[in-house]
Design brief:
seven-stranded mixed β-sheet, Immunoglobulin-like, mainly beta, 3 domains, about 10% helix, 8 helices
Length: about 650
Amino acid sequence: MGARDRTSRVTYTAMSFRSTAFRASIFFGLATVVAAILWFTPPPHPDFASCERPCKELDWPMICRIKLTLEVYQTFSRSCGNCPHNASDCFRKFCVTADGFQRGLLTANRQMPGPVIQVCENDILLVDVVNRVPGQGFGIHWRGQPQKETPVMDGVPMVTQCPIPSSTTFQYKFRASRAGTHLWHAQTGVQLTDGIFGALIVRQSAGRDPHFKEYDVDDPNHVIVINEWSHGFAIQRLLESNPGTSSASLLINGRSQAKQLDGSEHLDAPLSTFTVSPGNRYRFRVAYAGGDRACPVTVSVASHTLRVISLDGNPITPREITSVVMAAGERTDFVLTADQPVSNYWLHVSAAEDCDSSTVRGAAILRYEGAPEGSEPISPTESSLELGSGSSTLLNTVTGKCTTPEEKGGIVCLPDIKSLHKMRHELMEKKVDITLYLAFGFKQFSGENPASYPRQGVSRVAHVFVPQLNNFTFIFPSSPLLTQAEDVDHDLMCRKETLPLRCQSQPICDCVHVIDLPLRGTVELILVDQGGGGSDASHVLHLHGYSFYVVGVAQLEGPTDLPRIQQLDSEGSLVTRNLVNPVLKDTVTVPHKGVSVLRFKADNPGYWLLHDQHVSNWENGFDVIFHVGGPNDVPTPPKDFPRCGSWVGPEFFLI
């Protein structure tokens, strides 16, 4: 008996020793692998003052420190020297020429557009925003970045943070987790149109970039930022007195040329130039920041075919086109093959004629190395611009008339574009957890009864078109919902099930419109444009914190009231849905009197704004906030995060 116990104990000890040795060998092996990776992975190069560098798969993410100083500035300042009479002076540091008219503006680091921020996927961005603009608060939004770890860094004043006060600094700190071509910009529309915007480029390593073999060169200088630029009041009055001229221009990387008018202060401003070498394939990254009217723009390069490979930073199945239409806030990547005779070629940008009384244009130059200096660029021929001619194809994500070949002509519409990857499996199901119908339009009020329009400061108006979304007109809260929800007056909040008491006797409800979504729920969002507002333009909407699949788009011939839309959808005749490989975006156009159907998984907790890109709608109530998850689901804000809100002092009497 004793001998058997001793044998069992020896056997158990041997087994225990072998198990411990096996675990130790696994640990040692893992440690060896980690040590090898650390040894062979090069550290960040000391010469990289910024994070602009070739991205490699085994490199460690860098911490990228950037400073953006916001201030009031002037085109053709003293920094421009003798520009334009001395052309080289126009390219001096801090020289902003715009379209040749002198006017004040806002700048970041005395540039327009602001600095292009170029990083690699998963780099950590530390951006110090210094506000030197007197009397204005700011918030900087990082369009395209989901901020999944850092919702307080989304940059929406009174939703995710307090506005950055004048003469103070706020540091944004977040991971550049979504690769692609993106934008950073002031969240307030007027500040964006005055110059606070720039490109945010997040590159991938060759192994992670699905389109790496499509191009030979991804030149950091081939980033194109377009914005609509209006002139000062005096110049606008002069332009209005000259029929056929426009009160705005389209700038390409901050440069364009407006038409010379007698008596104006117009100067012969230079244009942006992009250089290519014959025979190479170049990736161009285009971002459209928008402007006052947020008109869609058409981009083309004379004599060249563009191979579009990405929309809003998300890869698509490549499409060969000759021109592309972009809505405000959208981004497009295309590959241009330098296969034409060595020369200079026009890169044209123009706004739709039905968006303004006259066409708004901009231009830049595509220059082949070896082309004669100063030679007139080659323009596109008229025949190449005719849609349906067999030689011209337009990629248009804005139009909703894409149901028949006759309507489409030579147009590639949004439903024709396929994502390079299939949609998330849980979103492919016919039924989702939550179906939301959001109908937006305008309610008209007459000046004969100004009391019916409750917004303060408006007393005498001939006609007011008030934007509404599901019969609510949005106002921003008195404190950021993400960090100070308890400080917001409950009577300001409105949800479908909890209408504020003050709204029950009003024809229009101004409130903080919030829609609650359960965390990790699958959502189908059906956006319905009911028309109105004195315009037949489409609406462009942007959702913060998410990218969504555009599973269907349609322009309707009949009524677009919400009950009718719900009936058509229940019958299956509203819109054809692509539940396999629809395009992934964060900005979408809803056609005039049409619908756009979006799907996403609510896996990013926080308060996320959905808003219209038109400046007047953006700031006058065309918004809604999606509240995803509960208080315990949201990452904790940094210690000592700034707080703001209303203050009412104690009661006292003057004696």
